């Protein structure tokens, strides 16, 4: 028999799409604060949002009647008619968020309009209004959400760790704070202020949230067409990472995800970054509201553009042009008429190294006044010295470096050419796998610890998984004044700690993927990423001793022929092939 579900049951079902975790509550309440015209927004959480989420603003506030009505499903002030969906200029419009939040938590709202002398306090839980009181409160609104999912134990049980939920909340806070750099934002966690972000320009806002080092990696993009206006920042090719982290698209100030537009952006980086790597980007699209559809999913992270094919090409061209303008790739300049001709240095010009003159026949033992074997008749040769002295010398195979990427050496069957970076990838990969299996790593302490510029999300990873990070050979410690210092690095790395700093950053970005014990698949993925990043730190000219050691270490590996990514590490040129090339 069919029946209509009671209101509180239907609210619980609908809440599953809108309120998936504490971060969903932060997102919805912050968006409401922005829509209310607030100039200052404060977010405070306790226990990663499980105990308390409080969002306050100095926006327009609500009347007593609206404060009560706001928790009814589909109660909204954003739209009135169906035509309004084509001209959405606000974050919210469905009227579902507050009703969904109130159905799975205990909510207290304090609000006052500028023209009212007193405000209103509404207490509600399980979609039922418990009390409505007249109170003294500042202009704006204060939402306090306590004990999320208290009435749905199964949902509360399946929330992730405090650190993981905290990072999700930071991600939602970051998305809104970046899209509105003109507003003042505060963020407090367990009574400790994490962010105090006064109004600033976009670049400074990005640096304030994600770190000063990221700001140095960014270059500007800007293009204005009749279809769309695109502006923002993209990362330099050399700073691309294998793990996703700082990739943001915004449409008319609204964050959204788009594999389609990300493909356009990455296409512009062809031959500039390694396969599988992602650059940072903060790209803002501005178009007429009628050309954008955000009414696709309750989470509102999907956006459909009317001219998405054209925008694909515009974005690709804008990124390509910016990379060329900043000398990351060859750019074409057609305005050459009348320009002076500058002679070019011949590419084949070679400067010979200085020669050192020495006498190969020089022997100090035969100089006058020195030891003379024939003159000293008391000397007698050692008899039966044994096998250890039978060989006059041990012949070492020659090793020659070709350019900065390859080394060549001889083997019995011919000549072998080794890719230095891929060889280091294989060596480091097997060392990491071994250290993970043995749950130990050799660490060398550094004389001068390096300060790591970490985001708040990265700090939470270090605090939560310090033992796992130590297992990889990185000793990161928090100082008394709250700084995070790199005090130890893997023994296989050189002492260039400024370069290893980036490798530690890569590790921190990977670790959130693994929960609890690391399985074989995750272990190999982490080891592959770290070995790839570590190998790039090893590039450059090698001494003969270093090249010899690299060859020995490579062929001590279990699978020396291929890198962890499956590419060949070396190429063999047989004696027969050499003879064939030399034949007339």
UniProtKB/TrEMBL annotation:
| Keyword DNA damage applies | yes
Tell me which Pfam families the record gives. DNA_mis_repair (PF01119), HATPase_c_3 (PF13589), MutL_C (PF08676)
**GO molecular function per UniProt:** ATP binding; ATP hydrolysis activity; ATP-dependent DNA damage sensor activity; mismatched DNA binding
InterPro entries assigned: DNA_mismatch_repair_CS, DNA_mismatch_repair_MutL, DNA_mismatch_S5_2-like, HATPase_C_sf, MutL/Mlh/PMS, MutL/Mlh/Pms-like, MutL_C, MutL_C_dimsub
Family matches, as Gene3D superfamilies: 3.30.230.10, Histidine kinase-like ATPase, C-terminal domain, MutL, C-terminal domain, dimerisation subdomain, MutL, C-terminal domain, regulatory subdomain
Q: Which GO terms describe its cellular component?
A: mismatch repair complex
A GO biological process this protein is involved in?
Answer: mismatch repair
Locate the DNA mismatch repair protein S5 domain: which residues?
206-324
Q: What are the UniProt keywords, alphabetically?
A: DNA damage, DNA repair
| MutL C-terminal dimerisation domain mapped to chain residues | 398-542
What SUPFAM superfamilies would the database entry show?
ATPase domain of HSP90 chaperone/DNA topoisomerase II/histidine kinase, DNA mismatch repair protein MutL, Ribosomal protein S5 domain 2-like
Q: Which HAMAP family match?
A: DNA_mis_repair
Q: Tell me the protein family, please.
A: Belongs to the DNA mismatch repair MutL/HexB family.
Name of this chain's protein: DNA mismatch repair protein MutL
* Species the sequence originates in: bioreactor metagenome
The gene is: mutL_15
